[in-house]
């Protein structure tokens, strides 16, 4: 009887899980190198896709139309059957595995090509349990199969392994002493794989697309292994899922071009296999013979495994994914923990969120549901605009509703309930009446980064603004990002009532997170006729109106870090830079990743409170970005970013309000 390891997913378990890559960065070197190569190749080949935006729009429309379209799926099944395929719709992964086992029958060897769906349904393990030898025929997958490693990219599963690692893996598996030479290793792998392919009578592949109109499956690859696997004498079993559905071949080809470009930087793969029927002939007296040169049978297994449920619950977009892996290249979490973030072949934030439906809540927690900083860099990278921040927050809400959120976050929520701030602070706040603006200080500036509060107040006084300080409560951002909308809604109402009492119609914020919460998450705020601005936007107005005077000062070279809440989430990029440019003697230098492409500091989404070392590792990378452009100071407009960057930075980190105060007349 197989032994099952029951994992209890605690904060400690997850901390331990990511400690490996956080402490030993060796493994990330090859991964980052591979990602850089992909990015460079994408940039080189951009010229081949002058109409890339049109292509993306077209793909979005095709996905919108196809995903969850039951009629289209029925049409596809009908057309595949008409073309001679045997089709099986598997509601669950067990149904899929049982069916495939029956189809394999007495065969003892199966060759297989890359397929995330087969990983999802644990096909490999289940076949081996029955004594069937399964050989992966994609070189990267074969290396992973021979090792204890997890894949690191959907199309380059072994991209995190160096030539030395691979030489060790092959040498150990075959009792050889192989040199770490990439070509020698590749040829060695090829010979081993070929031997197996020649012997096997059943081949299993995935499918990148199933096309309803034609009843055709499409599979792309560079190695040529798919063609060999699909041509096994007895059977070709295609294992795919309902989200691989396209209306027709044209739409699928558009997807494949984009997928190839984003996955590898190339414009096309070496092979595009279109399978729209079975190998047959009736050349002799019209007598039909199946399996002339190809397999005698082609079987299509279409797996649901929780996807329909996800579509119904409003997570359809999550399954628009085409598996290009582009989101991994820029994800700040993936950059520092690699494939510890993700589920089997579904890697990173999107994969972790999808695993909630494919495998369940505990699996998603184990794969890093709470690692996501909600920075939304993935939305910018993704050709289908899939941003994981929204999904993380919604799924965390479910976790909280069954009281399974982690103790640290529970404590924060308890603090918010008791003291109306996440730190449990009970000290009295300074209050002030004023009718021009309300300065909403936010919990960080009130209790932790007090210099930001002090400098903002001093600037308002210098500009002779009649400002109000209210008995504010937490804006609700922390509750929202960690999964408690209900508390956030109550806090929002309390804050809005207190703001309205002042009679001021403008509210300014030091914290990018508070501003985003007020603008995006407060219900019906538009009706309140209030204007919400970040303090940097307000100070820019005051500088332009001459109410705040700026004088010269020390000459410094500084860089601006865009907080995710203010940048990607609110698209405010220019005003803080305009303020900095008003200051004489300051040279503003942009980091290689800035504005929309800015690298997250790592503090958001409750990550800093839950996984401090993970947050610091991300901050370290951001500080490296600043050092790379020889900045002497980092300036930001969010107290969370300031704190997290300051925790690891060897150069000064300031809030913009502090900088303005320093240089104000
Ligand atoms: S929101 Fe940010 S941290 Fe979360 S998965 Fe996307 S890129 Fe990664
Ligand atoms: S979420 Fe988007 S970027 Fe990431 S793998 Fe899927 S399609 Fe590609």
UniProtKB/TrEMBL annotation:
GO terms for biological process: lactate metabolic process. The keyword Repeat applies. One of its GO terms (molecular function) is oxidoreductase activity. It holds the Pfam family LUD_dom. Keywords: 4Fe-4S, Electron transport, Iron, Iron-sulfur, Metal-binding, Repeat, Transport. Residues 312-341 form the 4Fe-4S ferredoxin-type domain. This is Hydrogenase MvhADGHdrABC CoB-CoM heterodisulfide reductase subunit B.
């Amino acid at each position: 009887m197989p032994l099952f390891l029951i994992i209890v997913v605690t904060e400690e378990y997850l901390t331990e899980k990511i400690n490996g890559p956080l402490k030993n960065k060796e493994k990330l070197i090859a991964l980052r190198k591979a990602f850089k190569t992909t990015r460079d190749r994408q940039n080189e080949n951009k010229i081949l896709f002058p109409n890339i935006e049109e292509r993306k729009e077209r793909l979005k429309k095709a996905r919108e139309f196809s995903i969850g379209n039951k009629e289209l799926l029925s049409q596809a099944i009908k057309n595949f059957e008409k073309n001679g395929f045997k089709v099986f719709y598997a509601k669950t992964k067990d149904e899929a595995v049982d069916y495939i086992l029956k189809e394999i029958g007495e065969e003892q060897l199966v060759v297989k090509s890359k397929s995330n769906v087969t990983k999802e349904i644990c096909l490999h393990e289940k076949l081996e349990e029955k004594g069937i030898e399964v050989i992966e025929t994609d070189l990267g997958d074969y290396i992973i199969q021979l090792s204890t490693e997890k894949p690191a990219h959907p199309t380059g599963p072994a991209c995190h392994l160096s030539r030395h690692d691979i030489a060790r893996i092959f040498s150990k598996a075959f009792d050889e002493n192989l040199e770490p030479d990439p070509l020698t290793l590749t040829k060695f792998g090829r010979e081993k794989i070929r031997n197996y392919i020649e012997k096997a009578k059943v081949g299993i592949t995935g499918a990148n697309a199933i096309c309803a109109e034609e009843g055709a499956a499409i599979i792309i690859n560079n190695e040529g292994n798919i063609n060999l696997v699909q041509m096994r004498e007895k059977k070709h079993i295609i294992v795919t899922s309902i989200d691989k559905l396209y209306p027709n071949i044209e739409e699928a080809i558009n997807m494949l071009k984009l997928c190839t470009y984003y996955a590898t930087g190339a414009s096309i793969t070496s092979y595009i296999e279109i399978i729209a029927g079975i190998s047959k002939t009736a050349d002799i007296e019209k007598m039909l013979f199946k399996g002339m040169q190809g397999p005698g049978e082609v079987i299509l297994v279409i797996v649901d495994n929780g996807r329909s449920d996800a579509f119904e619950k409003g997570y359809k977009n999550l399954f628009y994914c085409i598996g290009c892996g582009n989101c991994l290249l820029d994800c700040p979490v993936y950059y520092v923990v690699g494939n510890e973030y993700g589920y089997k072949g579904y890697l990173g934030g999107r994969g972790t969120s999808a695993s909630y439906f494919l495998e369940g809540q505990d699996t998603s927690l184990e794969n890093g549901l709470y690692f996501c900083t909600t920075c939304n860099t993935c939305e910018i990278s993704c050709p289908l605009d899939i941003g994981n921040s929204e999904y993380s927050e919604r799924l965390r809400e479910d976790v909280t509703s069954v009281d399974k959120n982690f103790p640290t976050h529970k404590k924060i929520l308890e603090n918010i309930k008791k003291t109306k701030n996440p730190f449990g602070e009970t000290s009295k706040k300074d209050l002030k009446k004023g009718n021009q603006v309300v300065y909403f200080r936010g919990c960080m500036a009130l209790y932790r980064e007090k210099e930001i509060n002090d400098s903002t107040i001093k600037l308002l006084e210098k500009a002779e603004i009649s400002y109000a300080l209210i008995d504010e409560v937490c804006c609700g951002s922390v509750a929202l990002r960690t999964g408690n909308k209900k508390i956030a809604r109550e806090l929002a109402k309390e804050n809005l009532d207190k703001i309205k009492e002042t009679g001021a119609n403008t509210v300014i914020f030091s914290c990018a997170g508070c501003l985003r919460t007020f603008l995006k998450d407060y219900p019906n705020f538009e009706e309140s006729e209030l204007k919400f601005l970040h303090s940097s936007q307000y100070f820019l107005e005051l500088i332009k109106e001459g109410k705040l005077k700026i004088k010269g000062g020390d000459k410094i070279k500084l860089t601006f870090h865009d907080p995710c809440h203010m940048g990607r989430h609110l698209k405010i990029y220019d005003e803080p830079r305009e303020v900095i440019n008003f200051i004489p003697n300051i040279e503003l230098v942009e980091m290689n990743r800035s504005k929309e492409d800015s690298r997250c500091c790592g503090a958001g989404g409750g990550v800093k409170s839950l996984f401090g070392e993970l947050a610091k590792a991300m901050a370290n990378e951001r500080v490296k970005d600043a050092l790379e452009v020889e900045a002497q100071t980092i300036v930001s407009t969010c107290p969370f970013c300031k704190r997290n960057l300051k925790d690891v930075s060897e150069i000064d980190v300031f809030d913009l309000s502090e900088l303005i105060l320093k240089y104000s007349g």
